Structure formats: C-alpha cells, structure tokens
Amino acid sequence: MIQIFWYIYAAFLATSTIAYLVHGGYKNIVFLIDLAVSATAWVGLFGFVTHREILTPFFWQIVFVGALLWDIFFYFFLKGTLVEADAEGSRSMDLFAAVFMLFLLGPLYYALFQYAF
After folding, report:
1. DSSP secondary structure string for all residues of 28-93
2. Which residues does 64 contact at the CB level (< 8 Å), separation at least 6?
3. pLDDT, tens digit, for every residue of 25-38?
4. Which of 15, 59, 77, 103 has a beta carbon 3.0–4.6 Å from 55's, enabling a disulfide?
5. What is the three-class DSSP state of 106?
6. Hey, is 13 helix, strand or coil?
C-alpha cells in the first residue's frame, strides 16, 4: 500500500513539473537550474521507489545535501525576487508558499535521505 503512495507522489511531481514547463515557467536560467536539481533528486526518488541502486550512496548523499540547500535558498531567497508579486498580501503568500513547499517536498527529501544513507 505504501508503495502505491510513492508511485503516486513521483507521478504528481513529474506531472506538475511538466505542466509548469508547458506553461512557460522555466524562462530564467535560475529556474532551469532548479529544474536540473529537481530532476536529479527525482532520479534518487525513482531509485528509492523501485529499490534499484543507481550510482553510489555517496553521490546521493551529495545530491541530498545539495538539493536541500538549493531548495531552501531558491524558495526563501531567490524565487521572491524573480517572481513578480504585488505588495499586498505577498508576506502571507510567502509563508503559504514555504509551508506548501515543506509539505510537497518533505517526502522527496525523506526518500532521498533513506536512499543515500
């Protein structure tokens, strides 16, 4: 049963990224870097879900730390300056986005941690 959750979760991440790509969300080089980091992390998620060894655990330890630091830096420091937002309500939207990011990417980092260590 839990295995089905992981497959659904991986499909949701891939589908949302493809939808964002189709609607022109990756116009900036910073967003393309985010796509590359995310895609690398998803390969680790795929390895975790399918119980297949892809590359070495040391590589995934580096990916885990690097992707986690990148996402924190990207969502809390870069994205707000790159995405146009109106002054009213932007503070509450930033808090909502941070909580949503934690909720959405928490399982990914749990899986990467389990896969790497």
Report:
1. SHHHHHHHHHHHHHHHHHHHHHHT---S-HHHHHHHHHHHHHHHHHIIIIIHHHHS---STTHHHH
2. 41, 44, 109, 112, 113, 116, 117
3. 667 788 788 888 88
4. 59
5. helix
6. helix
